[in-house]
Specification:
By secondary structure, this protein is an alpha/beta fold. It has a single domain, classed as Rossmann fold. The protein contains nine helices and ten strands. It has a six-stranded mixed β-sheet, sandwiched between helices. Helix 3 packs across helix 4, helix 3 packs parallel to helix 5 and helix 5 runs parallel beside helix 6. The longest helix has 16 residues. The chain is globular, with a radius of gyration of 18 Å. The chain starts with a strand and ends with a helix. The relative contact order is 0.17. The mean pLDDT is 93.
């Protein structure tokens, strides 16, 4: 049974259809990368999965259970199973690194402070931020802030991690330190949805690649197939352009 299944999903912004008949399944431990031109619906799909933009048709199933995005209790449960990291770090500027990572598990989940702080410290060590527990966000580089944001998402102990262009706001020399963190999570078997323009990284780390355009899934395949032998003309056009640059 897939860990996550998307069936005939449709979403609108007002009268404008932004996702049309999306079908996709994700097995536990898979890393699924969404690629495609700007405006193709990649980030929108992640927002729909998190309930930030409710779908108007179709289903999302986690471990076989269909989600009702209009049910507040189910939405709360969903957000304990799935976490998202955006391209903007959105850290609390008046809180230390440790407090940023622990505030949600303590305040929202009601977990014991000592237990949460011990776990958060382990996570921050894992992402290379163990020496910065008491630093404030304005004392950190963009790459360091993004690694804290990833640790903050992991502190909720999600089964699925969504990464929405997590390197897009970074200077080029800081990109690799964040990608190394994602590589580590991949090696540990974390199920991930990744939206990224870092095609070399997508090719390296993905279990499968989903090419999207104009709110549709155009093609799904293993990285080698998508980048070397795309079947669809629209995929070939996109891949041809990005590989020339």
């Amino acid at each position: 049974m897939p860990q996550l299944e998307i069936v005939d999903l449709k979403a609108n912004y007002g009268a404008h259809t932004v996702l049309e008949r999306i079908n996709l399944s994700v097995e536990k431990g898979e890393i699924v990368s969404l690629i495609g031109p700007s405006g193709s619906g990649k980030s929108t799909l992640l927002r729909v999965l998190m309930g930030l933009l409710p779908p108007i048709e179709g289903q999302v199933r986690i471990d076989g259970q269909a989600l009702d995005y209009n049910d507040r209790e189910q939405l709360r449960r969903l957000r304990s199973q799935m976490a998202i990291v955006f391209q903007q770090y959105n850290l609390f500027q008046n809180m230390t690194v440790l407090d940023n990572v622990t505030v949600a598990p303590i305040k929202v989940k009601g977990r014991p402070r000592k237990q949460v702080e011990d776990y958060a410290t382990q996570l921050l060590e894992k992402v290379g931020m163990g020496a910065k527990l008491n630093a404030y966000p304005d004392q950190l580089s963009g790459g360091q802030q993004q690694r804290v944001a990833i640790a903050r998402a992991l502190a909720l102990q999600p089964g699925i991690l969504l990464l929405d262009e997590v390197t897009a706001a970074l200077d080029p020399e800081l990109v690799n330190e964040v990608l190394d963190t994602v590589r580590l999570l991949a090696a540990e078997g974390m199920t991930m949805f990744i939206v990224s323009h870092e095609m070399g990284f997508v090719r390296e780390v993905s279990s499968k690649v989903v090419f999207m355009a104009d709110g549709h899934v155009i093609e799904i395949g293993e990285p080698r197939q998508i980048f070397d032998e795309p079947r669809e003309a629209r995929t070939r056009e996109f891949v041809g352009k990005i590989l020339r640059h």
